[in-house]
Design goal:
By secondary structure, the chain is of the alpha/beta class. It has 22 helices and 25 strands. The chain binds adenosine-5'-triphosphate.
Length: 661
């Protein structure tokens, strides 16, 4: 639960302008921390008010928020589909705060004297369950004490009679043992009269929230424990062995199941029954267990279901379960990004304050540190004019920065802490990519100087956020029969696809018939991962054309882009990370699809290192990548008839510095 905070600054549109170092430029584009905070007048996140209700803490996801608010009043189910860490479980918890608490009940399970294997169930208002149990316990204790007293009196009487009157000590001991046993067995009947408090809502401040993500059948549906002592009066009464499942604990509250498709089919079917009937009997889940004999009366399962997952989850979940949720509720797709406006920036400042409050140990963030988080949110969005909504990862950055500050006993988390955290909180893929780049340097695989025929520095993405330079080498030889595409390594399919994409373009202008040539393509140093045939197609095309025409490629140029059969360069993903990888590897120019120009948000340190050239068609790519030669002019002339380059763009007149983010 979020801690309550003093309300100091309204993160709404009326906030004033900040003072102090927050007004210093924080980005190369000259945006000050104040701008990056949407004009917020704060020194640290201590000055930012954190709302009490979770639903008010949710940033972005307007559709999902509306749905949750609506579903809470109507008690409808919700299915949320979207990327991890965008707030699905947060919204589910928020829903539990919105549902009325007054209706909560406790559930008690009683021994059934007529059939010990069918315990009876009773519902009482929340909090009453504990009172009932306590009353029963006190009564049982009193009766037990009286019983013990009586038992010891009888034992003493029996022993006394046997010893002093009958003179038969052995008979007396046996008789006393029988008395002792009879009283013990009787005592068990007394224990059986104490009910089992199956669902205890006594302390619930809000409607319950049960997270059944990855739960096994017993945890989801309830279970009856196995009893190894089933004879000799030692058995535990069956009602005492009954355990509630998440579906019972969530009754009148929220049952949250993330990655819903990972629940086994049988559990999904039972879940459906629980949703439909609003009650579900508890029985032992293991057929070999003595618990399997036991089945309680139905226990209420009147919960609101909040299911979540990614798109795969929706495809793989039981269709009937999906239709049940859909039929009695809403489906909502989570947003990945949100428009970057002063208002959303202020909300991001609140996000940092929320995470600091939630963690409870992190030093508050200075305004400039918050601005750096907003910058990172811009970068991670991968779209110009947007901020990422992948808050779990962004929260990770906040925590690492705060932890660094804490380790240094700093009073506040500063911009420098955030910058260091960004380096430290690299994903596995980023770490791998850096190792990969270092290793390639060692083996001299990264060639970023001079010119080579048929070799082009392509760019690829590992994971979601790590670029690598992936050179493509092509050679063209006359074919024995009809020409083939031959790729070395495991990337035959990728290479064939890329060459097929470019062959239409090549055929139009080439002086040789590509069908009569074998095209050899090699992705240098690539494993299976990282290479997406589509985004490599411009690279493959440039390598093949260079090899066909014998014109060297400038190795300081790296490129990415997808090629249409008409020769247009189409947008691809991960351009920012690719540009950064090219800069790290030492490239001087990066060719990207013009349509991606607005997505570029390169870290300041790389901005001066590379010249980014947005292009729209293959002739522009070749114009930039091929070194000046007579053959090049002839090639470009032939190409211009097919895919004319925009006027004024030639190798000596590139588009200038990195486009502003
Ligand atoms: N929209 C949001 N607004 C504010 N904070 C958020 C938002 N989304 C996520 N967070 C923060 O990130 C944390 C993790 O988010 P949450 O667990 O809700 O993600 P999720 O979508 O359920 O992810 P997963 O599907 O991986 O479980 C939250 O506890 C919260 O601190």
């Amino acid at each position: 639960m979020p801690s309550e905070r003093t309300h100091c600054v309204n993160t709404g549109p009326t906030a004033r302008t900040a003072t102090g170092d927050a007004s210093a430029p924080a980005t190369a584009e000259g945006e000050s921390a104040v701008d990056l905070l949407g004009g917020l007048d704060i020194e640290t996140t201590d000055d930012v008010a954190v709302p009490d209700r979770l639903i008010d803490q949710v940033i972005g996801q307007d559709d999902a928020r509306d749905v949750v608010l609506k579903a809470a009043t109507q008690r409808r189910h919700v299915m949320m589909i979207g990327s991890p860490g965008t707030g699905k479980s947060m919204l589910a918890k928020a829903m539990s705060q919105l549902l009325p608490r007054e209706e909560l009940q406790d559930v008690l399970v009683y021994h059934n004297p007529e059939d010990g294997n069918q315990p009876t169930v009773r519902m009482v208002p929340a909090g009453r369950g504990r009172e009932i149990i306590e009353t029963h316990r006190v009564e049982t204790r009193k009766r037990g004490q009286l019983r013990s007293l009586v038992m010891w009196l009888v034992v003493v009487a029996v022993l006394g009679y046997a010893l002093f009157v009958a003179g038969e000590p052995l008979v007396g001991i046996i008789a006393a043992a029988i008395v002792f046993y009879v009283f013990r067995v009787g005592g068990r009947t007394q224990r059986a009269s104490v009910p089992n408090l199956l669902v205890d809502n006594g302390d619930q401040q809000t409607a319950p929230f049960a997270d059944a993500t990855g739960a096994h059948a017993g945890a989801l549906l309830g279970d009856v424990r196995h009893d190894p002592y089933q004879s000799g009066g030692l058995a535990t009464p069956s009602h005492d062995r009954v355990e509630a499942g998440a579906i019972h604990k969530a009754s009148r509250g929220v049952l949250f199941v993330d990655e819903i498709n990972t629940l086994d089919i049988r559990s999904q079917q039972k879940l459906m029954t629980a949703i439909q009937e609003g009650e579900f009997s508890i029985t032992g889940q293991s057929e070999q267990s003595s618990g399997a004999m036991v089945k309680t009366d139905p226990v209420p399962t009147d919960f609101v279901m909040m299911a979540a997952g990614n798109l795969d989850a929706m495809e793989n979940m039981h269709p009937a379960l999906r239709s049940r949720i859909k039929g009695y509720g809403y489906e909502v797709y989570m947003d990945d990004t949100i428009a970057d406006t002063p208002e959303t920036r202020r909300q991001f400042a609140r996000f940092v304050a929320q995470e600091v409050a939630r963690d409870g140990r992190l030093p508050a963030f200075e305004a400039a540190a918050v601005a750096e988080v907003v910058l990172e949110a811009q970068r991670r969005a991968g779209r110009k004019g947007h901020l990422t909504l992948a808050f779990r990862n962004l929260g990770g950055l906040v925590r690492v920065a705060g932890d660094i500050a804490r380790a240094e006993d700093a009073e506040y988390t500063t911009r420098d802490h955030v910058l260091r955290a960004k380096r430290r909180a690299r994903s596995i893929e980023q770490q791998l990519a850096d190792q990969y780049i270092a290793r390639r340097r060692e083996y001299d695989l990264s060639l970023v100087e001079g010119s080579v025929v048929g070799r082009v520095n392509g760019l690829a993405v590992m994971g979601e956020d790590s670029g690598i330079v992936l050179p493509v080498v092509a050679a063209v030889t006359p074919a024995q029969g009809s020409g083939e595409v031959i790729a070395t390594g495991k990337l035959q399919a990728v290479a064939t696809e890329a060459v097929n994409n470019v062959s239409a373009v090549v055929k139009k202008y080439a002086r040789v018939d590509l069908d009569e040539m074998d095209v050899h393509v090699q992705f240098v140093g690539a494993g299976e991962g990282g290479v997406d045939g589509d985004s490599a197609s411009v690279t493959v095309a440039a390598a093949v054309v260079s090899a066909l025409e014998g014109i060297p490629v400038d190795q300081s140029v790296a490129m990415t882009g997808s090629l249409s059969v008409r020769g247009d360069v189409l947008p691809v993903g991960g351009v920012t990370y690719k540009i950064e990888a090219a800069a790290k590897a030492g490239a001087k120019t990066v060719v990207i699809p013009a349509a991606n120009a607005q997505d570029v948000l390169v870290e300041a340190e790389f901005r001066e290192q590379v010249d980014v050239v947005p292009v729209s068609n293959i002739s522009e790519v070749l114009n930039v990548a091929l070194v000046d030669a007579v053959e090049k002019s002839s090639l470009l002339d032939r190409l211009s008839a097919y895919a004319p380059a925009p006027p004024g763009r030639d190798r000596n007149r590139r588009s200038g510095p990195t486009p502003a983010p």
